[in-house]
Queue: 4 jobs
Job 1
Amino acid sequence: VVDCIFGTYLMKNNIMSYDAIVGARYYGVGNEYEGVSIASPIFAFAILLNYNKKLPKWSIVIASIVILITSAYPTMGANVGGAISQTAAYLLFIMLIFDVKLDFKKVVLIGLSVVGVVGAFAFLDIVSGSESHLGLFVQQILLNGPSTIIQTFARKIGMNVKLAQTSVWVNILLAGIFIIGIFIIKPPKQFRMIAKKYPMIFKGFIASMVGCIVTLLVNDSGIVAASTASIYILIPIIIISINMLVLENKDND
């Protein structure tokens, strides 16, 4: 967040960030840290809420808005995919922690919120004249019509297919899909215990999973972003499950 405010200098020179030399990206938040910015805050919020009952939930709303703005604002993070994924994941997490019952209307509300947030940042981009890829994308739609949207998504799909064949990140994503799939299809006792013993953390897992899926669908390097985001789901689940097994064995002894 701080780095985005001051021009993403650290982001540009980080070994885990985008490579300007090969033309992957030249400014803002890269896809690697997009995944981090989706799942890491949610996991941190979930931990704080789970162990600090006095923490006001509205503070999570404010923190989420700040992170979203710094990640997506045209002169800061300028990451459209991040704006879409963060809005969906953060809003879902906020609904879950406030015990809002999810139904079709709430899902539609999340979708409309995503459209509204992206539209707002696109407007700010055009007005400010920063000419990030979001503003240019909107201008292309106005000039060439809806076909631009189809072409853009086709390019994103093609890039993800290419990354699936060449990037090492796909291995992390596949491992994540496999492990998460097991927990969803045939959840072990430990996973059910996590939901019961650590309800806020479990809600964080759900919101982060949604963020992974959304970023995989809307980003041209969604595999990379989804992989880095899944780290904040897989490792905590594995560690918590192992700790539960150890404690259970000690109790049995």
Job 2
Amino acid sequence: MAKQVGPVFITGTIDGIIFYKLNGQYYLRSKGDYKSAKRMRKDPSLQRTMANADRFGVASKMVKRVYYRQLPGTVRKPGLFARLTGMVNKWLYQGKTKEEAQELLLAHCQKLAAKQTTIEATPSVRTTAPVLPPHPTPALTTTEKKKEITKPTPRVKQARYLSNWKVKRNGRLYIPKQCQKNCVPMIMPRSFVIPTKTQNRRE
């Protein structure tokens, strides 16, 4: 289906193309292989198609009588009519007579109605789990709090070959007291001074 652009709009059939107007708009489409109802019923190649259509029509009429006259409104739901029609059509296709299909349909509808009544009769009881009080957590003692707060200070490992001796800015050698006790005393003159970088540059 395509729209007519204009500026001239036409209606009719030209060379197998139909020009027509719909809701104020002009369209055109191909004529196609149209077959009327009389031709479809008389065409021998469509006999099986028409037989299936007739059987489906019979099933729809049977379901219509039971659905609107015997089923209560609470049982009727969207899609149930089509489901019942398909069931009856299947029974007829399997070779059952109309009376047998009618009996099966009535029995099935009675089951649906009984099931709906049992659902309405049984009250819905909600099972709620008992609400338990929150489990009390034991209070922390002061010792435990201190243990949590205090963290061990990391120990920095020092190599054995490193010396604690230091050279001051004035060039004098500084020996710590611990080293003076443990180390062997060295006889050094008082005037012994380690030259610094600035002194070397001056010289």
Job 3
Amino acid sequence: MKKISIYINLLIVPFVFFSCGVEEIKDPRLEVAIISPRVNPTTARSIVLKDQKFVYEARVKGGESSSYKWLVDDEQIATTLRSDSISYDTEGFRKARFEAANNSYEGSAEVLLYVVERAASFEDLPLAENSFWAGVDNAGTVSTFTSGNIPFSNTSPKDTIDYLEFGYSNITDSTNVNYANYGVFQLIASRNNYGIARTPESGKLKMMFDGEYSPMSIEVANNPLVVQTARGDFDIYEEDDTTIVSFANGDFYNLEIRGLLDDTTTTETVISSPLVSKSSNILTVQNSWLNQELITLGLVKGLEFTINTSKVDSTGVITYPTRFNIDNLILLNDGGEIINEINN
């Protein structure tokens, strides 16, 4: 996963009375936070890979060290801020809880920990700073790369044709010469490696798994070239910029994700991410990473990514760049256990 610290806090602030006959509370307030494993602050969930070594670690302010306690699935594993190094060799979920107290207060922080075998963060792929990978050569060669035990297909560039399917990048600097094609559009640069994707003109891109899995979640983001073209910053087809292809009112550019039940059959459920749209002369752009839950797709053999846009010609061919970015794709080999826990 990404190298940032996200905290789940339980902040307990004492009420202080100064009226006659009431003693002022002198004990410090109590703050409790889980800092490892890294926690999604919205869902209070955390992901670790199977067999990945880590420690449970908390941060406390105003607590008595004798009260510190780590419990996992109601079993006490430590009485300190940090546990011993630990790893899990089976997939599944675990409820981790840290407790602390002082003379006046008790506090705790909880996280639902998912142990998974397949989680693509792209951080395990070697990449120089401000660079990208879009294929093994410039000859249109088909190959596969793997991140977090999830395989991704790639067709390398050839002649004037850019890569197809998936690659990866860490470009966030808008002044980088490769930013438009291989960067990620976000107001605040806050990402290391991430996945890049380019579909054929049909806008459809299939990703087949090596078995049946339950997709849990994915993060998606805009490609800069798509945003720049929608704004009319430059025209991708005419060097003299005489043809205007920027967005008009009613135009849209969405990314849809469906599960693949086999090579051709998709789920009825679709997860849609609006990336760019224009209405009432206002251009709305997704300018940060968007986390999408995929739980409702169920057990599938792959994913189908579809660019649904108003920018098509009379034959249905997309006339815009067919690019987007992905990160933190998580697949569960759960047999329904984790899915049922989440849905309940």
Job 4
Amino acid sequence: MTTRGESGTPTGAGSAGGTGSAGGTASTAGTGSAGSVGRTSRTSSPGRTGSAVGASGAGSTPIARGADGTDGLWAAGRRIFVNALVTKVARDHQEPDRDFRRRRVIAALTLCAGGLLLGLSFSVRPADPAFYPLTFGLAAVWVAGGLISGPLHLGYSRTRGRMRRPVLIPVLTGLAVVVVFVAGALVVRDIAPLHRLVDSVLAHAREGSAPLVAVITLVNGIAEEIFFRGGLYAAIGVRQPVLISTLVYTAVTLASGNIMLVFAAVTLGFVLGLQRRASGGILAPILTHITWSMSMFLLLPPIFAAA
């Protein structure tokens, strides 16, 4: 019986590629699962120590420091970036062909249902009470599709040679993306057609219940990652999953009818896909997504109100 899914040893810090295979046998001893949620996986966890890497591996190369310390800071920053978005940690997420095909069917059905609900959600006017059940229902669809599709994994990152759950770096990554979007917002607010598109989204909080919209923003951020970087990503296989998951995420966002949300989906989706690929799980994408979305919820209204 053939198997499909992600497997392999971690890549070197200077490599953007991976060593996972699309099928065949599981990875060699010493590699393990990147942690799991939902159904119990038959793979093992890498624990705290993780797999050893060579001299080029993340966490093993000493940082060269210049006289003013800038070289050391640059090297440390580069290493953090590579660990978060490039270097793949060891994982063994193999599953039988039958389960892989089932995952794809569930992902396709979820995309259809989610796209329909997303379109309906943004077709209602701000302050319309129907917006709230529609968007909570959308989150429920994403979560159900992700969990029912098969085992999901939280993932790990390599920090100082040890395998840990990714927490701080994903939050900082989310804040870095926020800086980029805020800079873009300062430009967009002065372009009338684009300003109106952003304002049509912000109006749901301004004219409706802001606390409820904040909860919806948080819940949907988590739900989207459970499905798009969880169930859907795993259903794609090992051939260009970052690119394909980003394109699908963008295509579904088209149902909102708002080009600014589509642009956000392309940019954010690509970063989240890289995190999923590097960490082998959904924890890093979840933390980055909710950091970004909640920051946008708080920062965009005053930026556009000042225009």
